[in-house]
Prior knowledge:
Layout: E1 3-8, E2 11-16, E3 21-22, E4 25-26, E5 28-35, H1 38-54, E6 59-62, E7 74-78, H2 94-100, E8 104-115, E9 131-134, H3 140-155, H4 166-173, E10 185-189, E11 195-203, E12 213-221, H5 226-240, E13 245-252, H6 256-264, E14 267-278
Parallel strand pairs: 5-6, 12-13
Antiparallel strand pairs: 1-2, 2-5, 3-4, 6-14, 7-14, 8-13, 8-14, 9-10, 10-11, 11-12
Helix pairs in contact: 1-2, 3-4
Amino acid sequence: MTRETLKAEGASLTIHLDGPVWDGVQAATIGDVAFRDPQAGAALLGDALARIRAAGRDRVLGPMAGDTWHSYRFVSESDGSKPFLLEPSNRPEEPAIFADAGFRPVAHYFSARMALTGEDPPPPPADARFRITAWDGAAPEDLFREVFALSCAAFAGNAFYTPIDEAAFLAMYRPVMPMMTPDLILLARRPDGSLAGYLFAIPNLVEGPKTKTVILKTYASLERGAGRHLIHACHKTARAMGFETVIHALIHDDNISAERSRREGADVFRRYALMGLPLDV
């Protein structure tokens, strides 16, 4: 069995034996962590590691629900503000339980907040390779098939990347589609109509239907410079729609997106860590 859920009184987790490659070998992952009772959680984590070791895996990542397409990362630092829509969250003691078992951070991420006040900054220079438009709201499944193909190409070089099939990708996004605002789905298309990049932003609906905060959730591109154009268009559109704050969500510390966020003047309010543990099999 490559996936197994373990439960005890006050704790649960799921083991995925076929996780991403780490240090050149396939790692197992531990996700869906819920340690309501810290002592029970520590014991269950020890049980999970024993099972992973017995299965022959010598690397473990966590928290991660199998791959980076699904939920992963612990909150490691916070200003105390409430979680935003689709943000990973955890009990404060859970990272310490993993650390006590020998896990150490192997990747760091952050979310940053920026005010959408004042005038729109000048747009980037026009680029004949692509044009930025908002999604018209039609044929969402067709759009997401395009997004899936581009995402596979754009993310393939990322650390801990694991491919998934189109059906799994569409199943993952279908529940989110009704929450999406077409004007905040921005597309960079080449002159031949093919997709060169995309950006998904979504209102922070946990604050209610009249939220003034928008979340820049995901963007990717295959043309150099398209990301800069997509971000500018997102901020401009969000201002015009009456949003007052944008969240640059869940950015890897070493990603080019991190430098873009800093240049825009966004302030970090949350940090996250993915943890890893080498095992002696």
